[in-house]
Amino acid sequence: MIVLKPKYIAINSAIFAAISPLSTISFANNANLPVVNLDPITVTSTRAPSKVSDVIAQTTVIDEQDLQRYQGKTVLDVLKSQAGFNVKQDGGLGTSSNFYLRGYDSKQVLVLIDGVPYQSATLGTPALNLLSIAQVSRIEILHGASGSSIYGANAMGGVIQIFTKGNDITGNEDYSNAQITAGYGSNDHFMVGATGQYADADTKLSAGLNHTKTNGFNAVKKGSNKVDDNDGFTLYGAHLAASQKLSNNLSAGLNAYYNQSETEYDANPWKQPPYPYSYSDQKNGAANVYIEYKDDLATTRFTQGYSMDYSTAYADGNNDKTGSQFNTLIQNSRVDSNVKVGENSILIAGAEYNSQKVNADTAYTKNKRNTKSVFAGYQLAGDVWDLQANYRNANDSQYGSNNTYNIGAAVKPVEGLRIGAAYSTGFRAPTFNELYWPSFGNPNLEPETSRNTEVFVEYGNQNQRTRLTGYENNIENLIAGGKNINKADVKGISLTSDWNVNNVLFGAGYDYIDSENLDEKNKGNQLFYRPEHKGVAYVGYEGNNFDTRLEAQYVGEHYTDVSNTTKLDDYTLVNISGNYYVNDSLSIGLRVNNVTDEEYTISNQRGTEYATDGRNYFGSLTYTWF
Fold first, then answer.
1. Helix/strand/coil (H, E, C) string of 243-283?
2. How far from 234 is each of 269, 457, 580, CA to CA, in Å?
3. Which are the contacts of 456, defined by CB distance < 8 A and separation ≥ 6?
4. What pLDDT is recorded for position 486?
5. What is the pLDDT of residues 18-61, one digit of tens each?
6. Which domains, and CATH codes, for the chain?
């Protein structure tokens, strides 16, 4: 049983009401807090609101209460502590980064912001190191390849959907309020943010501003041209959400976020001169408008969305203002419909148009492309069986037509126990850099494809949920070093277990990954930045006016290059966080990271080791007007 703090009552009530009668909420009359048998809801795993215990693929839901522990941080910092993820980052807050999930890197994991694809079309990676938690209300993670047939290319390894504050899909609060948060921490890390919301029966409007600044620390730990200077980060952000009920069945709305940031870094620390005063200006954002029709039988929504990733790097130590500019814009148009075809089953169908455009001072042979897709799916959440099947046809302007599909099933032999399996195919087109970058681009590259098998056993009740998943990913035409290598084979096991007993929360997770490169030259080597072992564990307590959490994370040794000649040592991090609720309006938060002051490295390029922070803290005050 989970006791929710007052400011989360409306959020969770709205989510459960949206899928009633599948969910149950009971209220303790002798207290002003609801007691919820919390089976998280996901909209990412199937494109329709579903209980996590009914979907086939492994799914993680990180709600606003969980995100409260990451004040002043970015979405990338949240992913670092999640089971199955490994993160590479070249320094502190805001610096260049990449993440890996189930052996796939971030180019092969689709990121959506309020349903809009979000990535750099040149690099192929999403700038989650630049997205502040102050703008986010919820994160859903779909592990594995089933997302390819639901969302298309770049979802071979999974889907991460980020919902900005005020987004109705996640259960927007149905009351007016305002909130301000201010925090300070190590390395002169300062954050301030303010949000406000107006709500009545037909109209909801939410808006917010936030600012983060830190002096940072010296990003380069070891290198032939190491320069001792701190590398700071500054971010200004805004978000907006609005929805209007036009009739009993028809509504419309918009969601938008925008960030402008500056990141200091050491450019080319392995060269002479090292350019120690380099920095990059970034502009990132996503926006969509939608109109939705909903009745007892079906929900149909049309969405028009855009996302942008603009970056100008000033790498010259002489403060050269010309910079290197890389601007990418994604346009996404989508219509989809969920139709009830039985008491516990739905049909999903839709069409999507996606276009990418690059504007850079580097000459690309081609600078735009588009994909037209149609998709369909079926989901059954029954008393004995859960079924899911999806099919997608995508017509890429460069690579023509391709089909992906997913089929999965689970049986429930006794109450709380599920045993299931799934098979999925995936597809990813090369990025503009992989195809056309002047020094290493290869316009003859073929798309990557994958075949993925997954089996699982899961047991859950009102106090705990435990899942053991085994999977194998066969990847063909994997792109590395400017060519399609033969293939790679990734096998893994993922174990997660989360408990809540008498307001004591505890749990653990373990991931084993064998990511074997089958290229003739490097056959038998492990893919780089994929640790063979990773484990997480936590214990916490939620009282009437406080909560606290102690967590530990172990990351095993792993390689940083395709030849497996450079290895990073294993490390263990211990973090502690907590919140004290002075009253219904005022709360105090504190997080201490790397309590044991572990010295570790998560990025090494060309003999240059990038630094990580030692013991550090961040404290915050939040005041809410209801």
1. EEECCCCEEEEEEEEEEEEEEEECCCCCCCCCCCCEEEEEE
2. 22, 45, 28
3. 58, 410, 418, 419, 420, 421, 467, 468, 469, 470
4. 75
5. 333 333 333 233 333 333 345 788 899 888 888 999 999 999 99
6. 2-473+578-625 (2.40.170.20)
How far is the first Cα of the chain from the last one, in angstroms, to the nearest whole number?
Answer: 26
Can you read off the two tokens belonging to residue 159? 């889907």
Evaluate whether 81 touches 536 at the Cβ level (below 8 Å): yes
CA atoms within 13 A on the CB side of 119: 27
User: Alpha-carbon distance 543 to 502, whole Å?
Assistant: 10
pLDDT band at 6 (very low <50, low <70, confident <90, very high): very low
60 - beta bridge partners? Answer: 141
Q: How many CB atoms lie within 10 A of CB 480?
A: 15
Q: 3-class DSSP state for residue 33?
A: coil
Q: How many CB atoms lie within 10 A of CB 536?
A: 21
- pTM for the complete prediction? 0.92
Contacts by residues 569-577 (CB-CB < 8 Å, ≥ 24 positions apart): 569/600, 569/601, 570/531, 570/533, 571/598, 571/600, 572/596, 572/598, 573/598, 573/600, 574/550, 574/598, 575/81, 575/550, 575/551, 576/548, 576/549, 576/550, 576/551, 577/69, 577/548, 577/549, 577/551
The two three-digit tokens of residue 107, written as one number: 């180019």
Query: 148 is written with which tokens?
Result: 């390819």
Q: Taking the mean position of all CA atoms in its chain, how far away is CA 1?
A: 27
Tell me which DSSP letter residue 546 carries.
E
